[in-house]
Amino acid sequence: MAEWLTAKVVENKQWNDRLHSLRVETDFPTFKAGQFTRLALEIDGEMVSRPFSLVNAPDESPLDFYFIEVPDGVLSSKLANMQAGDDIWVAPKAAGLLTVDQLPAAKHLYLVATGTGVGPFLSIAKTSLVWDLFEKVVLVHAVRYKDELAYPETIAEIQANHQDDFIYVPMVSREACDFALSGRIPQAIEDGRLEHRTGLNITPEDSQFMLCGNPAMVQDTMALLIEERGLKKHSRREPGHISIEKYW
């Protein structure tokens, strides 16, 4: 297998001054929703690569990567300036275990993300498997400012296709927003606002959580769910209720 696939940029969608969706065309093999691959560019004679989650569903094209431009970032600053027609390298396979096929059975699935961590969950929500496995799917997306709530058309389409089964909960922490919850995800769980918003109770019997994004959110949310709600971390050897992705 080749070390890298040659890909062509078809769109660089800019959501705000730092957030981008890079869409690229290449002959990419089958993957599972929730997985990631690597993007690479040759910079100063060296191949520089980073992992990025696939936002598109496995049967969709082009490949879609949601990322934030990091100040002085070696690769992200280059990606942010790419234009349609530019060439880029893509790793020839996907990896990662943040997929619904490895989850124990439950009624409700919570896809909980901060920032660009929402990417793999959009991929999951666009597939049929997740709706076959769970009665309700809750997407929680926490950001600092409301202009960071990207992919509104995608979320609206998911809502239209699964009106009775999909619950979208935006959270905005640094400005007033009348349609979103305020504060951090752990706080909204601890004080009951998330359950009030969704109309669902978080219990070991009914709930599965997938967490992706800021490491502090992931760790704090997991600790709260374990200590106060009786959930436990999931692994293949010891099935539980909480699956996590270490995003950086």
Radius of gyration: 18 Å
CATH fold-level name of the largest domain: Rossmann fold
Q: Which stretches are poorly predicted, pLDDT < 50 over at least 5 residues? A: none
Number of strands: 12
Given helix and strand content, the structural type is alpha/beta
Number of domains: 2
What's the CATH first level of the largest domain?
A: Alpha Beta
Task: Please give the CATH architecture of the largest domain.
Answer: 3-Layer(aba) Sandwich
What's the CATH superfamily of the largest domain, by name? Nucleotide-binding domain of ferredoxin-NADP reductase (FNR) module
Tally of separate helices: 7
Q: Would you mind describing this structure in some detail?
A:
- One of its GO terms (biological process) is heme catabolic process.
- The chain has 248 residues and is of the alpha/beta class.
- The chain folds into two domains: 5-90, Elongation Factor Tu (Ef-tu), domain 3; 100-246, 3-Layer(aba) Sandwich (Rossmann fold), CATH 3.40.50.
- 22% of the residues lie in helices and 32% in strands.
- The chain is built from seven helices and twelve strands.
- The chain has helices at residues 76-80, 119-125, 129-133, 152-161, 185-190, 193-198, 215-229, and strands at residues 5-14, 19-25, 36-43, 46-53, 63-68, 87-90, 108-114, 136-143, 166-172, 181-182, 207-213, 242-246.
- The strands form two sheets. A six-stranded antiparallel beta sheet has the order 4-3-6-1-2-5. The protein has a six-stranded parallel beta sheet with strand order 10-9-8-7-11-12, sandwiched between helices.
- Helix 4 (152-161) links the parallel strand 8 and strand 9.
- The protein is globular.
- 39% of the residues are buried.
- The model has no long low-confidence stretch (mean pLDDT 96).
